[in-house]
Design a protein that fits this description.
The chain is an alpha/beta fold and about 100 residues long. About 35% of the residues lie in helices and about 15% in strands. The chain has a single domain, classed as Rossmann fold (3-Layer(aba) Sandwich). A four-stranded parallel beta sheet has the order 3-2-1-4, with helices on both faces. Helix 1 packs parallel to helix 2.
C-alpha cells in the first residue's frame, strides 16, 4: 500500500475506537490501538482475528503523561513518526438531569 499511515487511536476497547481501529487496519495502515485497561482487549482481538488483520494493542491512559510517553516512544522507535492521532478516549455517564 503506497499511502500507509502510522495511526495512534485512543479509547479502543469498545465503540467508535474499536470500529475505527478495525476499519483502518483493514485498509492496511499501521494502527496502534490503545486503551486504559488491557483486560478489555478481547473484543478487539476477536474482531481483528476474524478479519485476519493486525493492529498493535497497548495500554495508554491519556491522563498519565508517563503512559503517553511510553507508547509514543515505542511508536517512534518502530516507525520513526506518527501520521495521525485519533484521540477517542473518554467515558460516558448515563442518567437523568433534574433542573
Amino acid at each position: 500500500m503506497d499511502n500507509q499511515k502510522v495511526i495512534l487511536v485512543t479509547g479502543c476497547s469498545s465503540g467508535f475506537g474499536l470500529l475505527t481501529v478495525v476499519r483502518l487496519a483493514a485498509q492496511g495502515h499501521f494502527v496502534w490501538a490503545t486503551m486504559r485497561d488491557l483486560n478489555k482487549r478481547k473484543t478487539l482481538e476477536k474482531e481483528l482475528d476474524r478479519r485476519n488483520i493486525l493492529a498493535f494493542i497497548r495500554e495508554l491512559d491519556v491522563t498519565k503523561p508517563a503512559s503517553i510517553k511510553k507508547v509514543v516512544d515505542e511508536i517512534q522507535k518502530t516507525h520513526f513518526h506518527i501520521d495521525v492521532l485519533i484521540n477517542n478516549a473518554g467515558f460516558g455517564i448515563a442518567g437523568f438531569l433534574k433542573t
